[in-house]
Design goal:
Blueprint (H helix, E strand, L loop, with lengths): L1 H14 L12 E5 L3 E3 L3 E9 L4 E9 L12 E5 L3 E7 L5 E12 L5 E14 L2 E9 L5 E10 L2 E11 L4 E8 L7 E9 L4 E3 L5 E8 L6 H30 L8
Parallel strand pairs: 2-8
Antiparallel strand pairs: 1-3, 3-6, 4-5, 4-7, 7-8, 9-12, 9-14, 10-11, 10-13, 13-15
Length: 257
């Protein structure tokens, strides 16, 4: 896949027909952006290009085995005078590993490249987990900007803000969480409300519940063992009972006659 995208990228660059200057200077690229995204999530990637040029250009292209719902899927180039670029990237709707390729140019003029540099960023796309809670405004007036903070096993994982909740009303809140680094097993999720007047269904400002991530272990073998032991005990008891009954019904020993 990387080779295929590299060939596509090279072809696209050749199509631009921008000649490279004979004396190229060095460029450095720095990328600021997430390496884990949720499906269909849009995030910003900030690119900083270091070099001594009056004009810079930077292009981006995405690669993955299924880019349905993703953007940009075609090679996209933009210009900047200060070497700062911002790209909006939307992840595909299928969990996978995608690759973002950045190509930067330091321009001697509007048509001649003085230097080129490239960077590749690997991004894991994961299916987001929806955390749903219901909150209630207990006041007789609307409350604004209520913050809900989320903790997994005591570790802070993010927050969301409810812009407004009307007086004496309830509201469903959904937090889209990307379970990065979450191991299979039992976990405790805690949600806390900041500010007065808003509570959960339990009447408190803290809500906690447990869930199992991954495939839960099977305890069927315990049931099977229990039934097996019960059958075994029943069989042994029956055999013992029949054995005793058979001894009582037999002829008396000669010494007893």
């Amino acid at each position: 896949m990387k080779k295929v995208v590299s060939i596509i990228l090279l072809t696209l660059l050749v199509i631009t027909i921008i000649p490279v200057g004979a004396h190229a200077s060095q460029l450095n690229i720095h990328i600021d952006g997430p390496t884990v995204l949720g499906t269909n999530q849009t995030a910003q990637y900030k690119v900083y290009v270091e070099g001594y040029f009056n004009l810079f250009r930077c292009g981006i292209i995405m690669a993955g085995y299924n880019l349905t719902g993703a953007s940009p899927t075609n090679f996209f180039v933009t210009s900047s005078k200060d070497g700062h670029f911002v790209f909006n990237v939307t992840a595909p709707n299928i969990p996978q590993t995608i690759y973002l390729y950045f190509e930067a140019y330091g321009m001697k003029n509007s048509t001649t490249i003085g230097a080129k540099a490239s960077r590749e960023l690997t991004v894991e796309v994961k299916k987001a987990m929806d955390i749903k809670v219901k909150i209630k405004n207990t006041e007789n007036y609307a409350l604004y900007n209520t913050v809900l903070s989320f903790y997994l096993d005591g570790r802070y994982i993010g927050n969301t803000t409810v812009n407004v909740i009307e007086a004496n009303s309830t509201k469903d809140v959904v937090y889209h969480w990307i379970p990065n680094g979450l191991y299979d097993g039992k976990h405790t999720l805690t949600v806390k409300i900041s500010g007065n007047g808003v509570v959960f269904d339990n009447g408190q400002q803290t809500y906690e519940y447990q869930f199992y991530y991954g495939t839960p272990p099977s305890y069927d073998y315990i049931t099977y063992m229990s039934w097996g032991l019960l059958i075994l005990v029943s069989v042994l008891f029956t055999l013992l009972f029949l054995g005793k009954k058979g001894k009582k019904g037999g002829p008396a020993p000669k010494w007893k006659k």
